[in-house]
Automatic annotation (TrEMBL):
The lineage of its organism: Bacteria, Pseudomonadati, Pseudomonadota, Gammaproteobacteria, Pseudomonadales. InterPro entries: Trimer_LpxA-like_sf (IPR011004). This is Transferase. It comes from the Bacteria. SUPFAM superfamilies: Trimeric LpxA-like enzymes.
Amino acid sequence: MIKHYMDASVSVSPLELDSDIQELGALERALSSADVSQPVPRYVKTLRQLRKASQTISCHRDEIKFGVTFGERLKELGDDFGLPAQHFSVNTSGSPLLVKEQVGEHLISPTHFENGAYFSHPHADHQLDHSADELPSIKIGQYVRFGRNAAVNAGGDVDIGDGVWLSPGSQLLRQDHDPYGRLSIGSRTVAMTRLPPVRLCDYAWVGREAIVGWNADYLGKASIVGIRSFLNTWVGDYSIVGDQGKVLQYLPFKAHLMETYQPSIEQTLQVSDWAAINSDWLMIYRDTPKRETPPLPAPLAEYLDTPGKKSVLLIAPSDNAQLQAFARHSLDVISSSRLPFAHHLQWAQDFGHKQLRLRADLDFSRLPFASAGDFHYRRRLGYSLIVANSSPVEAEPCRVYVNELARVLATQALLLVPVTDVLQAQLSVYQDLFHLQGEVEFDGASFMLMKKL
């Protein structure tokens, strides 16, 4: 019977349109108040007013002024509710930069909005009681460009780095319609702030009319999302991707330049001979000593040879050797430094490996999920193997780390973790999650081989 599945706490009541009630819904009533004091209606009202104002932008000076106005209005909102200064942060510093080339010139403006570019709020009727610290955080770096009619649906935390470009008509979606659990008519009621934060690293570029979906939580440094692509996963550093995040090209020469020299924004604008940079980089790469591919322990090799697609997460590998060992599989690498990334990407490009993603936000308390976000409705999804070359040295961070490893691993997947007293103590507590397969030697180090139950 259908009533068995109906929620008794949910009521559905018709409203009479010919009544004297002008505002339909709690949000409209809150916004019609002379003094909008609740955090969520104030957030909604602020973004609505800014969206309307962006439609009057007509020149470069207007674009720059609106960027300043956007930051000031968000700061005012945060100050009124006593939020930390970093909750809403828009960096509009810097002067407009006129770049003159051999032919022509172009203007690079401080963080600015072209005509019609806006941040919107998610549907919030049922979330009016959220406290101020539950409002999504918005952080925008220096010299960010929001193209004409670019849209950011700010239903979750948004962190945009320096030099990012959201091209005309592109969209960044941060609200959850719960499509797996609701039909279309009910999906208009959505959740705010439940989504994972999204981070666009420095110099990321979202192509014209591309859509960055709700589960895409990381766009790598200098990455490019192709025109009209739909993105539902995370994107590695120095990569060009198309629809569904499919890798089209790696950019190892850019990784070499940016990570070796750490150029300023002004210096990057003066670089034009990328062919020379690529040539110099290839000479460096060819002259760099290469380690032999480390042999896989027998139980690991046997597991990877079983039928089915395998995805591997490498945590802080020192060089390309471990990548070579798992060359037949989908590879994600997370580290705290981007210095090795040019070498990783060049190896992948030479090898023809188009399933490599790199990111440099290693946090033992928050590991990346294979499909991005925090989880997937298909719970069996997750990494087939994690090689953890690094781990915390204290007990409590290790406990959190073990929980994270369990979260992002698929059921029956394998885990290699360093043999340390602290990790062994924590893993012994989680015998219901992991089964110790024994100790193995891999790539010159001792690991505990664990299986997730």
